[in-house]
Amino acid sequence: MKNNLVPTYKIPFTFVEYFQDDQGEVDIDKVIATTNQFMKTASQIAPMVKTLNDFVKGMKL
User: Fold this and answer.
1) Residue 5 above 80 pLDDT?
2) In sequence order, which residues have a C-beta less than 8 Å from that of residue 26 and are 6 or more positions away?
3) Among 11, 27, 54, 56, which residue's Cβ finds the most Cβ atoms within 10 Å?
């Protein structure tokens, strides 16, 4: 008996497979969108990391 609650999707096995389309070609739009999202996230996190780093350095005796 098949459980219909379990999603049936393929999990990418390699980094490159994540960026491939159904035909196995690299989807450049997906690469660009993912890179853009990564850069946005990094630019938002960087100030928080710097603040935390300065705080930890200030706690040293």
Assistant:
1) no
2) 16, 19, 20
3) 27
The amino acid present at 9, given as its one-letter code, is Y
Residue 61 DSSP symbol: -
- Tell me the Ramachandran region of residue 24: left when phi exceeds 0, alpha when psi lies from -120 to 50, beta otherwise: left
Give one DSSP letter per residue of 1-51, joined into a string.
Answer: ---TTS---PPP-SHHHHTB-TTS-B-HHHHHHHHHHHHHHHHHHHHHHHH
pTM (two decimals): 0.61
- Name residues whose C-beta falls within 8 Å of residue 29's C-beta, 6 or more positions apart in sequence: none
